Amino acid sequence: WALHEFPGFVGVCYVCCELHAATSEIRIARTVLFNCGSEGVVQCKVHILGKLVEEADIVSIEQAEDVLRRTAGIPICCGAAEVTSVSFGLTRGLLTQSEIYGGTFFSVNCAGKSSKEGQPCLRCKYLRKALETRMCRPQKKIPGQSCTASYSTDYELQIANSRGRH
After folding, report:
1. Distance from C-alpha of 104 to C-alpha of 98, rounded to nearest angstrom
2. Do residues 63 and 85 touch, judged by C-beta distance below 8 A?
3. What are residue 14's phi and psi, to 5 degrees?
4. What is the tally of structural domains in the chain?
5. Which of 66, 67, 27 shows the shortest CA–CA distance to 46?
6. What is the pLDDT of residue 166?
7. What share of the chain is helix, strand, coil (3-state, %, to 5)?
8. CB–CB of 59/143 below 8 Å?
9. Same structural domain for residues 144 and 124?
10. 109-123 tens-digit pLDDT
């Protein structure tokens, strides 16, 4: 965890970042904001991959430390697929179902949490399957070429790599 203070913000922000080794890109994985409220109560907001997952009022340092410990233990969704692995035009439907965060496609309904570290959440699994299906459908039918030849090599390797990068 790294502690940050910002001008004009009455409180502190703890941030936990991740490094994507392939692209040398750093993204904010977990954020906990402690904001001074009224009557000695501190408001706490927990974000995972930019999505608000918890709000609480904190009255003691022990509670704040507990929030940081629990947040550090939340498994993070790895997303549906790396943006670089998608080398085809997305349909309007897929564009409305997905968003890009840190070079990765996520479902717009992804809460940032997963049941197991390094695995996608259920909604990102569905998006991954839709992307795989779209990848298997060629834009223009080329006589004598099957979709599995191009699909099964590069794309499956990149999907497998994106699953294990956390």
Report:
1. 10
2. no
3. -105, 130
4. 2
5. 67
6. 40
7. 30, 30, 35
8. no
9. yes
10. 998 899 998 899 999
Q: What confidence score (pLDDT) does residue 67 get?
A: 94
Residues 55 and 98 placed together within one structural domain of the fold: no
Among residues 72, 97, 131, which one ends one of the domains? 72
Q: Is the model's pTM score more than 0.85?
A: no
Q: What is the pLDDT of residue 143?
A: 54
Residue 101 sits in which domain range?
A: 81-163
Is 68 found in the same domain as 20?
Answer: yes
Please name the residues in contact with 7: beta carbons below 8 A apart, sequence gap of 6 or more: none
Neighbours of 43 (CB within 10 A): 15
pLDDT at 15: 92
Low-confidence ranges of the chain (pLDDT < 70): 22, 87-88, 138-166
Tell me the DSSP string of 113-145.
B-SSTTS--HHHHHHHHHHHHHHHS-SSPPTT-
For residues 139 and 68, membership in a common domain is answered with: no
Boundary-marking domain end, from 26, 51, 72: 72
CB of 107 closer than 8 Å to CB of 27: no
The answer to whether residues 79 and 110 touch, using CB atoms and an 8 Å cutoff, is: yes
Residue pair 3/12 in contact by the 8 Å Cβ criterion:
yes
| 43: amino acid identity, one letter | Q
Q: Is 69 helix (H, G, I), strand (E, B) or coil?
A: helix
